[in-house]
From TrEMBL:
InterPro entries: ArsR-like_HTH, HTH_ArsR_DNA-bd_dom, HTH_Metal-responsive_Reg, WH-like_DNA-bd_sf, WH_DNA-bd_sf. Residues 4-100 form the HTH arsR-type domain. PROSITE patterns: HTH_ARSR_2. This is Metalloregulator ArsR/SmtB family transcription factor.
Amino acid sequence: MPTLATDIDALARFGRALADPIRCRLLLALREAPAYPSDLAEGLGISRTRLSNHLACLRDCGLVVAVPDGRRTRYELADARLGHALDDLRSAVLAVETGRACVDAEEKGCC
Protein backbone atom coordinates (compact mmCIF):
# COMPACT_ATOMS: atom_id res chain seq x y z
CA MET A 1 0.00 0.00 0.00
CA PRO A 2 1.45 3.43 -0.95
CA THR A 3 2.43 5.77 1.83
CA LEU A 4 0.91 9.21 2.22
CA ALA A 5 4.21 10.79 1.14
CA THR A 6 4.20 8.73 -2.06
CA ASP A 7 0.60 9.71 -2.78
CA ILE A 8 1.37 13.39 -2.21
CA ASP A 9 4.47 13.23 -4.42
CA ALA A 10 2.51 11.59 -7.24
CA LEU A 11 -0.26 14.19 -7.09
CA ALA A 12 2.25 17.05 -6.86
CA ARG A 13 4.04 15.80 -9.99
CA PHE A 14 0.73 15.58 -11.85
CA GLY A 15 -0.20 19.06 -10.61
CA ARG A 16 3.13 20.52 -11.78
CA ALA A 17 2.54 19.06 -15.21
CA LEU A 18 -0.98 20.48 -15.40
CA ALA A 19 0.08 23.91 -14.11
CA ASP A 20 1.17 25.01 -17.59
CA PRO A 21 -1.29 25.31 -20.51
CA ILE A 22 1.26 24.03 -23.04
CA ARG A 23 1.94 20.92 -20.96
CA CYS A 24 -1.81 20.39 -20.66
CA ARG A 25 -2.14 20.61 -24.43
CA LEU A 26 0.77 18.18 -24.85
CA LEU A 27 -0.79 15.66 -22.48
CA LEU A 28 -4.13 15.94 -24.25
CA ALA A 29 -2.46 15.49 -27.65
CA LEU A 30 -0.56 12.43 -26.42
CA ARG A 31 -3.76 11.09 -24.91
CA GLU A 32 -5.06 10.86 -28.47
CA ALA A 33 -1.97 9.14 -29.91
CA PRO A 34 1.83 8.96 -29.63
CA ALA A 35 3.57 11.65 -31.67
CA TYR A 36 6.92 12.95 -32.88
CA PRO A 37 8.26 16.28 -31.60
CA SER A 38 8.06 17.97 -35.01
CA ASP A 39 4.37 17.06 -35.29
CA LEU A 40 3.67 18.18 -31.73
CA ALA A 41 5.45 21.51 -32.22
CA GLU A 42 3.55 22.17 -35.43
CA GLY A 43 0.21 21.14 -33.92
CA LEU A 44 0.71 23.35 -30.87
CA GLY A 45 2.20 26.22 -32.84
CA ILE A 46 5.35 26.46 -30.71
CA SER A 47 9.08 26.22 -31.39
CA ARG A 48 10.90 22.91 -31.12
CA THR A 49 13.07 24.39 -28.35
CA ARG A 50 10.06 25.38 -26.27
CA LEU A 51 8.45 22.01 -26.92
CA SER A 52 11.64 20.23 -25.88
CA ASN A 53 11.63 22.04 -22.52
CA HIS A 54 8.03 21.04 -21.85
CA LEU A 55 8.61 17.42 -22.91
CA ALA A 56 11.62 17.29 -20.57
CA CYS A 57 9.41 18.48 -17.70
CA LEU A 58 6.80 15.85 -18.48
CA ARG A 59 9.49 13.15 -18.72
CA ASP A 60 10.97 14.29 -15.39
CA CYS A 61 7.51 14.07 -13.84
CA GLY A 62 7.25 10.51 -15.18
CA LEU A 63 4.17 11.24 -17.26
CA VAL A 64 5.56 10.76 -20.77
CA VAL A 65 8.24 8.51 -22.22
CA ALA A 66 10.50 8.90 -25.22
CA VAL A 67 10.43 5.81 -27.44
CA PRO A 68 13.22 5.36 -30.00
CA ASP A 69 11.76 4.74 -33.45
CA GLY A 70 14.60 4.26 -35.91
CA ARG A 71 16.40 7.58 -36.17
CA ARG A 72 13.50 9.45 -34.59
CA THR A 73 12.02 9.61 -31.11
CA ARG A 74 8.31 9.25 -30.51
CA TYR A 75 6.61 10.49 -27.34
CA GLU A 76 3.70 8.85 -25.59
CA LEU A 77 2.00 8.79 -22.22
CA ALA A 78 3.95 6.69 -19.75
CA ASP A 79 0.79 4.75 -18.92
CA ALA A 80 -2.58 4.58 -20.68
CA ARG A 81 -4.30 5.22 -17.33
CA LEU A 82 -2.99 8.80 -17.49
CA GLY A 83 -5.27 9.44 -20.46
CA HIS A 84 -8.22 8.15 -18.46
CA ALA A 85 -7.15 10.26 -15.48
CA LEU A 86 -7.06 13.39 -17.66
CA ASP A 87 -10.56 12.63 -18.95
CA ASP A 88 -11.88 11.94 -15.44
CA LEU A 89 -10.26 15.03 -13.97
CA ARG A 90 -11.56 17.29 -16.71
CA SER A 91 -15.06 15.84 -16.39
CA ALA A 92 -15.05 16.19 -12.61
CA VAL A 93 -13.86 19.81 -12.68
CA LEU A 94 -16.45 20.73 -15.32
CA ALA A 95 -19.19 18.96 -13.35
CA VAL A 96 -18.34 20.81 -10.14
CA GLU A 97 -18.10 24.30 -11.53
CA THR A 98 -17.97 25.73 -15.03
CA GLY A 99 -16.87 29.15 -16.14
CA ARG A 100 -14.37 29.66 -13.33
CA ALA A 101 -10.73 30.51 -13.68
CA CYS A 102 -8.06 30.71 -11.03
CA VAL A 103 -6.90 34.10 -12.33
CA ASP A 104 -5.76 35.54 -9.01
CA ALA A 105 -4.61 32.27 -7.46
CA GLU A 106 -1.13 33.59 -6.69
CA GLU A 107 -2.57 36.56 -4.80
CA LYS A 108 -4.68 34.21 -2.68
CA GLY A 109 -1.69 31.96 -2.04
CA CYS A 110 -3.27 28.81 -3.45
CA CYS A 111 -0.65 28.15 -6.10
